[in-house]
Request: fold
Amino acid sequence: MVIVKLIGGLGNQMFQYALGRHLAYKNRTGLKLDLSSFKTYKLWKYVLNQFNIIEEFASRADIRLFNFKREFSPFKSDKNILCVEKVKFKFDPEVLKCKGNVYLDGSWQSEKYFKDIEKIIRKEFTLKNKPGSESIKLLKSIGGTNSVCIHARRGDYVTNSNTNRFLGACSVDHYNKCIQVIKKRLQNPHFFVFSDEPNWTENNIKIDAPATYVIHNTIDKGYEDLRLMKNCKNFIISNSTFGWWGAWLSENKNKIILAPEKWLNIDMETPDLLPDSWIKIKT
Reply:
């Protein structure tokens, strides 16, 4: 049995699930989700239930198998292994060697944790429900143009002091620089702009090219934006795991993905967060 602790917004939950799914697949065992942290965590809710994932929840008895009070090396041959992430944003291949009953506690933000089962992850991160009429119109426009997704993460990146100190929102200069790169590399791009603060994007991200500002989905239905984003052909993303997944899930083999070189607002490296083919933009 593999239990994965879920916490954070949709993008974070997707990373956590993806590692748990990979480890359970490797070990030919079951995967269970621990949602207990959401009882006290108020910023975001559990939302993976919108996707075609394996959804079985860990019980209290399941979780009690693991000793959370002692220092624990996750790579000993114990029957029940508590595997806590050592360093954020740095891939640890030893994690994928864990066997037996494993409890995963971390952010696990690297495609290296699930690249081997990419087809499974892509299939399971499809939505159960069909798109609404407004989204259907946009999907046709996205598919019929040289579409470029722009994702601007704001929200708690601006309003929450701890999040702002750790991450911080990308500047307008980042988006402007990326737009110019895209315009030089693509013919007739059509930009589709997504954000948790659509009014901010309309007032601050000015584009001298065809542009559509996507505003019909509410914040609690971010997964609907994700469906639209992943259908775009190219991407400009902010330092957001949500934007990361929109770009990664795109099926376009020739996609251009521009991401901020400096992901964090603190002096900390993120060596394994961005795939090698993505273009890092310095601002």
The chain has a mean pLDDT of 92. The chain has ten helices and ten strands. Residues 10-27 form the longest helix (18 residues). The CA atoms of residues 29 and 187 lie 48 Å apart.
